[in-house]
Design goal:
Layout: H1 3-10, H2 22-44, E1 48-52, H3 55-75, H4 82-97, E2 101-109, E3 117-124, E4 127-135, H5 144-158, E5 163-169, H6 173-181, E6 185-192, E7 195-204
Parallel strand pairs: 4-5
Antiparallel strand pairs: 1-2, 2-3, 3-4, 5-7, 6-7
Length: 207
């Protein structure tokens, strides 16, 4: 329901008090309150959008992305020193993004300037690569990750992209399960000796 239609519905006059016994009114109010509480998260983020990052914003995202990826490398026990991991992450990102068109997106709403996080994806031919979806800590656990994935897939479909690929670390089970629930399949798993480190996942986009 559009937010204006919802607001209009909320403003409809109630029946005259003399026609509603006190018990019935209390039950009606309880039902209304429960409905509003259930719908609040939906209306709060119903208009989630991607906005093109400025050059300055993209540079900040780039720096944050590399640092965050380096922290994940340490969590995966591929590096013990964060500075060394940052250097490796910086080199890997430079090599991996070469020859691709990289898009930096701010995650926000059409009627608000609040930034909930960012999304970075790249395109090579007819294939899209999800480089990162990052939500700021205070906005996690509210379904924004799912909405961001939906927005990303719609944007790629509009660009006639046929499939999307991504990488997820094996220790990040929450993200792995989220991608699987969205129809991503594991293309390959790479290991450090016998220990799984990460998964390459892919999804065919429906046009």
């Amino acid at each position: 329901m559009h937010r204006h239609a919802y607001r209009k519905a909320c403003l409809l006059p109630l029946p005259p008090k003399k026609l509603s016994p006190p018990g019935a009114r209390r039950r009606m109010n309880a039902v209304k309150l429960a409905l509003i509480l259930c719908l609040l998260p939906f209306f709060a983020f119903a208009e989630l959008c991607f906005f093109e990052a400025s050059t300055q914003e993209a540079a900040k995202i780039d720096k944050h992305l590399i640092h965050f990826y380096a922290e994940e490398l340490v969590r995966a026990e591929l590096f013990s020193d964060l500075d060394e991991a940052i250097r490796a992450a910086s080199w890997e990102w430079k090599e991996d993004s070469a020859g691709k068109k990289v898009h930096y997106k701010i995650l926000s709403r059409s009627d608000d300037t609040t930034s909930y996080g960012y999304c970075v994806y790249s395109i090579q031919g007819q294939v899209g690569f999800l480089e990162a979806i990052y939500l700021y800590e205070e906005y996690r656990g509210q379904g924004l990750g799912k909405r961001a994935l939906q927005a990303l897939e719609l944007e790629l479909i509009e660009k006639s992209i046929s499939e999307i690929k991504l990488h997820v670390f094996a220790h990040n089970q929450q993200a792995y399960k989220l991608y699987k629930s969205f129809g991503y399949t594991t293309e390959s798993t790479y290991h450090d000796r016998d220990r799984p480190i990460g998964h390459h996942m892919v999804k065919i986009l429906s046009h």
